[in-house]
């Protein structure tokens, strides 16, 4: 997760009063038996060891180091502490874990030779998960394209990336595929594209205006197109070469905001639909139906690349499930066409978004119905594909005491998991839910400020000691079918049981 939205908030609204429908009392056994509950981290945010054992920089290393921002050089030192962390996952009772592979650790130049030490690390880590009965969900690209490919030919802007990404995926499928059944090619592909090529707030930091280079009118659409083709090409390779043997699945993950019209006017209702088409349909429509949404083709015109017939066939049906990353709700107001004639992704949408977040505290309103709405929308508009919610969670700032007694996080998780259950009961083919993040990590935009973890990490301590927060105890009890701590009385009891003394589970 990145707090990208805070830098582009247009208006701030007060937290919505908490009025949503939600399942108040439920237990794990209310979910289908094979529903997967997990948690996750990503390579750069957790591994550290940024220059160790042959790893070379990714565009994220370059982005933060050239701007003197906090970095993940050490992060949680997961590279060295992975066994300890898998042990914590086991104690928590996770079914599954979302990790990502650092492309430039495995193949330092992006193409060419594999780094044996990088290979060994991921083999050992994945083996450790599988040995302990935890299903790995592996992402291939989490904001961290090898810098070498950016330098060689402009990275995602150049169609050469399709071939190189497919070759990288081939190495991963071949080396790890006997243990990995769930692959995600590109993490939140839509927001990576907007952040990196429209806003310039994520690596490689390109945009019109305040960036050193870039073009927000054209580049987001070119990059989005190449991402879809690279994903689809990797997915085809998997089906041709590995699927019979390994039986796994390959997906794209998308960031899904819960949009609702600001008023009941026809204009705002159409604006909310445009928001869904531009933010989600942009990539989901090609994956399901083989082309961009009509409203995008009409508005963006010749700046939106066309799919050839062959490409359309390649992309259509290439995502075996849809990975969903969800944090936010926004209300949508229609805006008048921009008279200056300047176009970027936002002006193309013709909308104004108002997020329910407080920019001072970076706290967002708890809106579980937004997640339920996203799952309903995907069910009803895209033929009910299988969905895994690969990230959802709550950031909190504060000291150790606050972090340890993270009751607001528990309340958040409780109602969001309830929202998922509502959607599943109403027919959504949602098959898993992953809390971001398993432990406090380096956050892509907020660095070591915002914390999402179930486990606290003492970043001042050279040992980077981990402690379970109250939310880790809560999730663990839920996963183990213990109903003691459910509901508000249960949370009070949880506070009593784990308040001062026990730092270990
Ligand atoms: C944001 O949070 C601060 C600190 O709690 C509070 O003073 C302020 O009123 C909040 N703003 C809004 C718009 O809710
Ligand atoms: C893409 O990269 C190739 C080298 O791999 C280069 O020849 C070509 O000019 C690049 N195309 C664009 C549009 O930058
Ligand atoms: C962006 O690219 C378009 C199309 O090539 C061009 O017309 C426009 O001038 C470019 N904008 C900037 C800021 O370079
Ligand atoms: C895509 O095809 C449409 C219709 O054939 C055409 O009008 C448009 O200019 C094409 N766009 C590009 C980027 O080639
Ligand atoms: C449940 O699903 C039906 C059929 O897709 C739909 O019409 C209805 O609105 C859904 N209910 C909720 C609460 O989303
Ligand atoms: C974190 O580590 C520092 C340095 O070792 C130590 O002084 C501090 O007490 C630790 N904090 C907690 C909450 O354990
Ligand atoms: C929590 O505390 C209560 C009362 O002290 C006790 O009965 C219960 O067994 C404890 N539960 C756990 C899981 O520690």
From TrEMBL:
It comes from the Eukaryota. Keywords: Glycoprotein, Glycosidase, Hydrolase, Signal, Vacuole. It is an enzyme of class 3 (hydrolase). SUPFAM superfamilies: (Trans)glycosidases (SSF51445). Its EC number is 3.2.1.147, 3.2.1.21. Residues 1-15 form the signal peptide. It is found in: Vacuole. One of its GO terms (cellular component) is vacuole. InterPro entries: GH, GH_1_N_CS, Glyco_hydro_1. It catalyses: Hydrolysis of terminal, non-reducing beta-D-glucosyl residues with release of beta-D-glucose; a thioglucoside + H2O = a sugar + a thiol. One of its GO terms (molecular function) is beta-glucosidase activity. GO terms for biological process: carbohydrate metabolic process. Belongs to the glycosyl hydrolase 1 family. Degradation of glucosinolates (glucose residue linked by a thioglucoside bound to an amino acid derivative) to glucose, sulfate and any of the products: thiocyanates, isothiocyanates, nitriles, epithionitriles or oxazolidine-2-thiones. This is Sinigrinase.
